[in-house]
Amino acid sequence: MIPRYTRPEMGNIWTLENKYRKWLDVEIAVCEALSESGRIPAEDLRRIKEKAAFDVDRIQEIERETQHDVIAFLTNVAEHVGPSSRFIHEGLTSSDVLDTAMALLLKEASDLLLQDLDRLLEVLRRRAFEFKDTVMIGRSHGIHAEPITFGLKFALWHAEMQRNRKRMADARETIRAGKISGAVGTYANIDPAVEERVCARLGLVADPVGNQIVQRDRYAEFFTTLALVGCSIEKIAVEIRHLQRTEVREAEEYFAEGQKGSSAMPHKRNPVASENLTGLSRVLRGNALAAMENVALWHERDISHSSVERIIGPDSTILLDYMLARLTRLLDKLVVYPVNMLRNLDLTGSLYFSQQAMLALTRKGISREEAYRIVQRNAMKVWHERGQLPDALKADPDVMKHLSAGEVDAIFDMGYHLKHVDTIFQKVFGRGSPLPA
User: Fold this and answer.
1) Which of 57, 91, 100, 141 sits a CA distance of 20 to 30 A from 334?
2) Is 262 among the residues known to form the active site?
């Protein structure tokens, strides 16, 4: 079943109709190349190109007897072509067709995934600038650290997804390799020039050396790339889940009119999309591991990889297409609560200025260790007794021996933390990047 957020185009790539169409594209491209070298008479090539066709149901019927999908496919094509079909598949092994066609399928899937990433990047950029100056507390270990802006989170995610887009483009190139070199890759029954011409016709590159198959390190790179994109999706989803917790409530997934959060508790508004994405990322990682297990095959090839790829090829590409689309919708409609961000920022009585207080003391000649001890002592007093850090520092004689009241007040300047936000945005989005319309 194709998930509802997935575009039909991605599911259509993995239909039997499209798979056999790619097989036929490879076979005809080989016939064309062989005809150019005089191996197939022009009249036979014309008949092949005019009559070559297949019927999915008939292929499956033949396969039930032959127990071999490529032979079943070739038999059905021959039924359409007639005597000229003797030239089809000349000098080839099944994997010449299977692997070259799989490169075409994965290239098609890659193009759709790159489009998905571009749409996600547009949303991340827009929302980054929308919240560039929206102040919130930064957290490490889940504990208040120092202030950031919500826009910086989006900028961080944008930069990571830009890297993922480059990885995806690189993986597309890695997987875009075909082979037409025969049973063990020696070109014994077909000239290497045929491989070059076939791959060029199909928009592929010829694998420089192989055995019976295109080597599966290429596949491992491709599916690991999908898993890495999934990891980044999970990273964003986990952050949203934390921000939506009732005690935090700084952002939450859009909750539509009539939507229900719980069968038992009518008040619930749960981060279901983020939780869904978190779980699905595990599937992508599992499939990447399966692709890695396929790298080591017996001698020039065994068939243990084939069954795995029939599952992980469609599953991982369809799944990532779904995940990217769902994350894009989630972030596009994410509900943000700046007032709650300010409320949470004030929970600790300005303790997030503790580093500036320590540095202010060290600049007066106090050792870092002593300055740390003085500020920590006051911070822990505020932590346990509430109050405000500026008041605690002003009440401490050890602080006031070195700082005036005005110098203490100057420590608590929010602009100190945010003075380089524009610089960070320029690094991520480019110098002079305009605000999104």
Assistant:
1) 141
2) yes
